[in-house]
Structure formats: C-alpha cells, structure tokens
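Exercise (ungraded).
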Amino acid sequence: MADYKLELKGVCKSFPGVKALDNVNLAIRPGTVHALMGENGAGKSTLMKCLFGLYHMDAGEVYLDGEKIEISNPDEAMTKYGIAMVHQELQPVLARSVAENFFIGRYPVHKWGPFKIIDHKTMNSECEKWLHEIGMSFDPKLPLGKLSVGQMQSVEIARAVSMNAKVVIFDEPTSSLSDNEVEILFRMMNDLRDKGVSMVYISHKMDEIKRIADDVTIMRDGTYIGTWKADELSTDDIIAKMVGRTLTNVYPDKTNKPGDIVMEVKDFTSIHAKSFRNASFNLKKGEILGFGGLVGAQRTELMEGIFGIRNIVKGEVIINGKKAKIKNPKDAMDAGIGLITEDRRGNGIFGCLSVKDNVGVSIYNKYLRSGFVLNHKKIDEIVTSSIDKLKIKTPSMKQHVANLSGGNQQKVIVSRWLATDPEVLIMDEPTRGIDVGAKHEIYEIMNQLATEGKAIIMISSEMPELIGMSDRIYVMCEGRITGEIDKREDMTQENIMKYATAFN
Amino acid sequence: MEKTKQQKIKDFLINNGVIIIMLILVVYTGISKSTFLTGDNLMNILMNMSSRLVIALGIAGCVITAGCDLSAGRMIGLAACIAGTLLQRVDYSGKFFKNLKPLFPNAPVLDVILVLIIVMAITACFGAITGSFIAFLNVPPFIATLAMMEIVYGIALIYTNATPLGGYLEAYTKVATGKFLGISPLIWIAILVAAITWFIFNMTRHGKYMYAIGGNPQAAEVAGVPVKKTLVLIYMKAAAMYGLAGFMLGAKAGGASVNLGLGYEMEAIAACTIGGVSVTGGRGKVSSAIVGVAVFELLKAALQFLGMNAYTQYIAIGIVIFIAISIDIRKYVAKK
C-alpha cells in the first residue's frame, strides 16, 4: 500500500497576470485529517479546484493510492475515484426534499413498462438509512431549505459516505456553524477517520486545527511552505508560517494628517444574530482607517449596514456631531457617505452603460436645468476632469464600462463617489482583482484624498495592504470588533491575525 | 488589412442584418408590385405604424429595466372603449350613454382633448398600481402585468357589457382621417411622442435612472438611485401611452370593442427587441423602437402585397423574430 492516500505534486496554475499556484504539494496519509491552511488568497481554494478538474492545472500530478490519475470534473472525482467535497458555500436545491438532494443525479428508479419512474419509497428509506449511519435523524421528505446549514452539511457528508468516498474535502465547513453543530461535525469526522477515510480540512480557526487535524500543510501566496505534524506546531508557529513574508514597497509615502473625529458609529447591531453586533468605532478627518479580519468577519455587512443597505436592531451613526438618519443609500449619500462595494460587478458598475453614465448616476439629481433637464455640459466637464485626475484609460467617456480593465472600472466607481463630494468614503476591498500597477495607482489616489481631508474607511483582507495604507486599524472577528491598533509599531501581521482569530 | 476589411463588412452585416433584409424585401415588393411604393400606401403604412410606435415606446421603458408589460393590449382595449363611449354623436341610435351631451358643442375638438386626458389618466392609474406591486412588493413584472391584464379586461367587459361601439363624433375620427401639413394627425402624434420619449430617455435623470436600473439594479440601489419611485413612474408612464394608443386606434377604426389591442403587447415587445432593446435590460433607444415597429409594419404590408395568405403571415412574422433576435444577440455575445 502506498504511503499516501492522495498526493498532489508540483501543481502550478496561472491566471492572466497572476501566478496563483507555484509548485504546490499536498500529501494525505490514509485515515487522517489533513489541515490545509493559509491566508485569504493563499491559493487553497484554487488548489482544490485544480484537484477537482474545475481548473485545468498548468503543471502537476495527482496520485491516488500511488497511481497517477486525472480528474476532469467533480462528478468523475466522486464516482470514479471516491473523492468528495463539502463546499464552503453549499449549492443544494433548497426547494426540493432532503432525499432528492441526496440522490441528485442518481435517483433510484423502477421500470414501469417502457418508462423509468423515480422510486420515491426507496429514495426516502435509503436516505434515512445513510443519515442514520452518520448519527443524524431527520425526515428525508423535508425541503432542504428548512434545515440549518450544519444539517445541510451533514446531508452532504452522508451523501459522500453513501457513495463510498475515500477522500472527503471540507472547505471551511465551520464558518457558519453554531458551536453545537461544530461538535457534531467533529464527531462525524472522527467516525470517518476510524473507518479509514482521509480528509482535507480547510479552516482558519486555530483551535479547531489543534483539535481535529493530524497533519498541517501551510500555503502562502500560492506557494507551498511545508507540512508538519499538527502536534509539532504551536498556534503562533502556524500564524508565523502563514503570514511570514516581507512587505514589498508598493505603498506611497503617507502625506495625510488625521484630524478631528468626523464620524462615530455606536453599538451597531444587525438584525441577524450571526452578523455584526455591538460595533462601535470612530473615524477622523484625513484618516485612512483599515478594517481587517478574515473573510466572513462581517466587515462588509457592517459597512452596508451603515450605508442603509442592511437592517439593524440598534446603533447610530453620528457625523460631525449630528446624528444621521440613514434608511437607504440615498440618505447615506445625503449624509456625506460614499460606498465602493466589494463586488464590483455585482453592485458596482453598470457594465452596459458608458463611462459617463457610470460616473454620473449619483449626481444626475444635482446638475439640472430648470429642475429637470440634465445639464450635460456640466456633467461632461466633471466626467472629463475625473478621467484626467484619476488617469482612467478609456478611449472616450462614451465607452462601455464593461470594456475597461478591472483597475479602470474601479477608478470609474471612485470617480462616481468623488463627484458626490462625500466626507466619508468607504472602500471595501478596493484593490481586489486588479493588477499591481493599478493597485499602486489606487493607493496613490487614496493617499491623495486623505491628504485633501477626506476620511477613508478601507476594508482589506490583504495584510500588507492593511498595514501599508492604514493610519489606524480595527480588526473584526465573527461580527464583533475584536481589536483596535493605533500605533504603527503594533501593526504587525501577527497582531492582526491574533485579533482576527479571536473566536468566542 | 484585408482581414480587417472583411471583419468590418461582417460586423456591419451583423449590426444591421434586420434592416438590410427588410430593405431587400421592400425593394423586391416595390419592383414586383407597382402599387406598393406609392405615396398613398406609404402613408397608410405610416398610419399603422403610428399607434404601434406609441405602444412600443411605452413598453420600451419597461423592457429597458429588464421588465415587460403584458397588460398593454388590454389597456388599449379599455382606453378605446372609454374614449368611444364618451365621444359618440348625439344623433347616433346605438349611443352608449343616451343622455350624454358634448360639453363644448361649439368646439368639439375640446371634447376630444378632454376625453383623451381622461383616458390617459385612467390607464396611468392602472399602470401606477402595477408599478407599485413591482417596485414595493417585488412581484416579478411578468406576473404583475399579467394580473393587471386580467383585471383591466374584466373592467372593460363590465363597463361596455361587451357591446361594440361606433357612431363617433367627426372631431374624433378626424384625428385619423384629417390632415395637418399634409399628413394625418395620428402620424404627428407619434412623432411628438417619439420626440418627448427621446427627451425623457436622454435628457432627464428619470431616463438615466431607468437605464441604470436595467443595467444593474443592485448597483443602482447602492448609487442612490430611487429605484422604487422610478419603476412606478415607468409603468405609469407606459400605461398612459397605451391609453393614448387606444384612443388613436379607436379614431382610426371609427369604432371599438373590448378585444381591440389583443396581443399588441407581444408585438410591441418583439418590435422593441428586433430594434435592439435588450430584454436583459439597460440597452435600448427610441430609434430601436422606431426600427422595430417599421420592420413589423413593412413586413406585414409587403407580405400582403405579395399576396401571402393572411394565416401564413403569422408564420412569416414568427420566423422573422427568430432570425432577427438570433442576429441581434450576437452583438452582445461577441462583446464578452
């Protein structure tokens, strides 16, 4: 028998302009839980997508039980090789029953003349049997949507077990589970280990790793750092290995001087129990305020709450000493806040509209003649000067925004908000998905704006960016603000990671 | 160089495919039937186009926001019936309201204008209701307008008791048969509506908000666009235009029944799409609606002149929609 159940060797994967994976290895011993760790963007998910054939790897080999295999899609991984994945974001059919989701794509049938009809009875009883096998019991006829996320995961796990999976990959399975559900998950994982199943466990939560993992592989910036026995590493060791990189000098010299407090947020609490709660912070004029944390720390949700997109049960926003009543984005704009969202395509740009319309959309109600005719001349002037000031590369202001690069699209959205002349500009992952050159330009724009006296909130999951750009940093974890770092010398990756993983 | 030239020709053909096919058909019909390209016939086609254009321009607003409006046809029917009942000759034997007398016996034109305003106001109210369901209660436009379509038809049936209407005041039928600067007032109305719609689409913030909502509703919300208010206004404005179209069709036919306008909404949506209004939202101009309606009406007229069986014409129209949209969609697919 081979030493390793599943082995990935020398995996490389490039996307235009980025080397996402560079010679990465992963070797999983039979009947063990193998933790795969790394910061956001370290390449963990990309590696798994390569394994499952969702991405085509540029170089690298996969061995199962010592034999070289090639997997072209997730279905083949499951049916041919017994490799299953429990996704970070499950994609089940919520409206259909547990049993139907359990048997999706392989429904039991019986013959009825020339027709094959679904055998609901077998389907339900089989499903119930397998759920029982992993120690769960609920009605297989329930619509899946009625279950909690944890229960849905257990359906996925039961499904993998029923298909005789030999390797199960868990991609951040506990990110939305209650403590109780985590215990149940760990019990199931222990059972699977006893049965000789190998597991890959992707998570940021240090204490979980120490509890459940046998081996740990750490990745950083798409490279393989190493593999250790879990009990050989302390939590601090893991953090150091995850973040241990030198800062590159891509950040402009800071010229801004933070002044008086311009905005205060008090006790902001979402209507959802798992989202932001009791968040209080302040923001100064001419300051770049960083918000750090892991993906899922509810930073975006908090900002969207302040901007009037999400509902809150309590909390207030005070701008220049006055309480702002914000019910919707329009109110937030009127109060002097701008929001550049994280998901540029989802709720940022209007792809099929021109650069002009993308910049102008928030100021069309400001530049009117006789109350309702658009002052195109004035708007054109503003757009042209934005294009010059932010160096937006576009043939003309009539160009469709979808045809611009990510960096230029981002600059268009920055222009949109600058045109509204906000006092506070919230930038959620402002450099996500744009190349290094454009990143640098965005940093310079931010620095410039802060120097001019604008107050900027920057959410960033990239530690070097957070440290390189911020005057002050708040760190969030599971919806709470777990730390404030205001001295430059305290702004270390280790400190941020410590607050970001301060789970209850 | 040679290749880029070929590419340019190909792009031109794809971008203007529908218009080119249409022109070929028109020229062919013109050559083979000498009566096709005459002033009278073209004027007739323009008159047919006029009310269809008003409908299409109304529906275009809905389609640009990635919606649709199935209630248009029934609103047209109701509008034509209301206008008909209020504008019958005093001496007409089958008069709907026996004792109704013109308010302005010396200036019947004023009566006609007053009735037009009433009709448009009524349909606008219905449109505002549909729009409110869509905007505030998040009912999908397809369903909301379907519901309104049923309601409006029911109201039209109850109101008229399904009686056909006729015997209109001369001042009303003159809207179609009269001449102003050499052409029918119907055509002038359509030109005026097109001009106003162009102005709204391009020169007002309402128009810009409409495109923004169609392009990306989530982004529009974040950018501070009053999404709900704008949606209500769009459906209300569209409904007012169906009211106008119903009034125009009544004048042209010199009568009306509850079934007037049946299915016109589908033709209007198809015309918009053929002209380049994208059903996925965010794209479309006034010229798109004009081109689409022209293609439809020219096609119908040409097929009629070529002696095609009236039943077969439906099949031809269906085929044109298939081809036109398949060509049109390439413009956007290629851009990705």
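Further reading is listed at the end of the chapter. For now, observe: The domain at 261-500 of chain A is CATH 3.40.50.300 (Rossmann fold). Chain A touches chain B through 33 residues (CB under 8 Å).
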